[in-house]
Amino acid sequence: MQKRLGAIMRLILLPVRLLLDVFAKGIESPFSVRLTASRITYKSKVVSYLMATIICVVAIGVTPFSALMYKQQLFSSQFVDFGLKTFVEGEITDFESFAEIGSTSLGFSSFTNLDNSRFTIRPSFEIRKVDSKTIYRPLISIWDTKLNNKGIFKISSRFDLYSLVKIARDNLFLFDLYYPELSKVLELSKRGDDELYYLSSRASLELFELISNAFLVNYKSIPSLLLRGHFQFLPYLQLKLELEKLLEITNDNYIDFIKSGENILIRKKDYSGENIIYRETFFSLSLLRPVVYKSIWDRNLDNDKAQTAFANALFFKARWGEQVSERLAIWVKDQIFNPLAGFDLISNNSQVEISKNYSRGLENYLVEYYKKDAIRAIESGNDNYISSVRSALQRFALVFQLAMEKNVNSYSKATIKGFNDILLALKLKDAKMLSELKSNSEDKKKDTSKNTKKNKSKRKRKR
Known about the structure:
Blueprint lengths: L1 H11 L1 H9 L8 H6 L8 H18 L16 E8 L12 E5 L4 E5 L1 H4 L1 E12 L2 E12 L4 E10 L2 H11 L3 H4 L1 H11 L10 H15 L6 H6 L6 H14 L6 E7 L2 E9 L6 E7 L6 E7 L5 H13 L2 E3 L1 H13 L7 H6 L8 H25 L2 H24 L6 H16 L2 H6 L3 H23 L1
Parallel strand pairs: 1-7
Antiparallel strand pairs: 2-3, 3-11, 4-5, 5-6, 6-10, 7-8, 8-9, 9-10
Helix pairs in contact: 6-8, 6-11, 8-9, 9-11, 15-16, 15-17, 16-17
């Protein structure tokens, strides 16, 4: 053991030893010999000094690259497109079908006709059991009428951006110099400024640059990072690993960056092997508390094209974050309804107070919306379409009923009855039964007219 330690120490002190030997000419027992308990015999001074210099320079030069061996990341690489793309609006043939849809629960709204009504959407929920708790997350059920294929768009998770970027901020020596605006925003976020929700456009671009640099840390792209003036790799590598965990990235995935409105999104595209199930995952780089969204499409050779068309239609004119709360306030005031607002009706977590009058109107709208969707599904004769509408409504009705039990005065039992009637018609595949169903508002009018007639007859009798 002592011999091994001695050999290691002599190796470590070799550069110092070589330097001391230069000044020890003619000394019988120089300090370098006493320090290392050994004597170097030089066969050719020029070659020895040259080799020692080269070894030292190479050792110092490769030291920063040792970070690439962290968790075997040297040969890890993804297909990353570092350009900034934009969503593209398709050809518009149906101007009348444009409408604003959105929800504060989902965190976005959009003015769209869903690619000239190619896609139909319906609100639903993902219901999962985690430990002893049951979690209900908003989910949009999608049907592509062109490919006759179904998909879903859902919230996968939520996180605090500060906790993600903190990894690089705490370990990158020149972080404030490289990303000054982002550093300021993160400092305000750290202090708990509740009014701070968005990153400025400059801070968002700096975050885009930071994440781009993180994905450059691999054996193929490291020269590009060096050319940008970044020589400290470990903080970027740690950030990259956290991003991979958050977006569930593997070496087979494709990553790019795309703008939606004023927001920059980081997006992952993923094919799942032989089943040809297509997934996209993304979150915004413009929000301090972003939501991770996920789209999943069933088996189809063109499901990636379906997702591209759907994303272009939905996110070309999209609003995000607190802007959606402003839109909800207008919807409530002007009695404007859309299917995704059903999430806000159930969650009741919005900063905007939803009036009782708006709630009743929205409930009637949702029953009528699902009824029309169910009629289209039955008339199409496509079992997958019918199944898609039915399963979406079953989950939505279940969560609606649970919400009704907690808030007895906030919801109508007639709405539950309407949902159940639609589910029965879907089960029987009876479009005629659906067309004969009357909306809640019609029932109320009839009840009102009956009560009016009764009151009139009572008055006559009294007279």
